[in-house]
Design a protein that fits this description.
Blueprint (H helix, E strand, L loop, with lengths): L2 H7 L2 H38 L6 H19 L22 H11 L1 E3 L6 E3 L6 H11 L6
Antiparallel strand pairs: 1-2
Helix pairs in contact: 2-3
Amino acid sequence: MDDKTKASLTNLETWKRGLFMVVFAIISGVAKLLVTLVAIFQFITVLFKGQTNEAMGPFGQNLSTYIYQITLFLTFNTDDMPFPFKDFPDGAPESNLHEAESVYTEYAEATTIHDEEVIDVADGDNKDDIITKKTSCDAPLNT
């Protein structure tokens, strides 16, 4: 075992995060159950009253945002631990559109295997070019 792997395996911070991940995974399961109960309650309310319960709407939104925050933590998209380590969410999650656009732009290019030409996959006109170049470089198909 090399030193880098050994250092990773013995890192106490990583093990602490792993423990918190297990705890938050359990909390996420409970929160998802609560969202399901809110959805059933709202459905029953609509059946009998013809409208949703106004008080349950914000609660459902906040609970959904909390699940989103937990998911970000569990998938290593953030190091910020959700409630109770920070305030319980109030409203929809904050949107990071600029970050999302830069990630999309980063993956919006593809490289063909044979000629290493960069092709912008966002441009639908290049689809035929990709197929043509691929078939022209490959061995003939046996029929």
